[in-house]
Design a protein that fits this description.
The protein has one domain. The protein has 127 residues and is mainly alpha-helical. 44% of the residues lie in helices and 9% in strands. A 3-stranded mixed sheet has the order 1-2-3. It is built from 7 helices and 3 strands. The chain is globular, with a radius of gyration of 13 Å. The structure holds iron/sulfur cluster. The site of iron/sulfur cluster has 9 residues, from helix 1 and helix 6. Iron/sulfur cluster binds next to helix 1 and helix 6.
């Protein structure tokens, strides 16, 4: 069962095959095909395949680990999950449908991937 950190619970719902490298994209498809996963605090199976990951000391070089941890916490508080929970994509989507509004305002508005995600019907329709 893969591990996923907070913000990946939200962002992966809108993944369409674009990413930082071939290995990274394959890891995302693999995580999405898993029925259930465990919520992690920090490092997860997506970070493991990301070219921006600098190891446990430094974390994410793309956005900075402090920022990523802040949005992990925001994602978990919006979805009402906590590290260690074992959840399915269906459970995440059911909660996300009615809570994504704050996320779009706080996080998507400054994100380099918003063009891709906003092409998704769910991203546009979910409130
Ligand atoms: S626009 Fe960025 S923050 Fe928003 S869901 Fe997509 S990847 Fe995540």
């Amino acid at each position: 069962m893969p591990f996923l950190r907070g913000h990946h619970l939200i962002c992966l719902n809108f993944f369409k095959g674009e990413g930082y490298s071939k290995e990274f994209v394959e890891a995302l498809f693999s995580v999405l095909s898993s029925e259930k996963f465990t919520i992690s605090e920090g490092f997860d199976d997506v970070c493991k395949a990301c070219p921006g990951w600098q190891g446990l000391q430094k974390g994410c070089s793309t956005y900075g680990e402090d920022y990523i941890r802040r949005i992990d916490s925001l994602a978990l508080s919006l979805l009402k999950f906590k590290p260690g929970d074992k959840v399915s994509w269906n459970e995440v989507r059911e909660r996300l449908k009615s809570t994504i509004g704050n996320w779009k305002k706080e996080v998507c508005s400054d994100c380099e991937w918003v063009r891709v995600c906003s092409e998704s019907q769910e991203w546009r329709e979910w409130k």
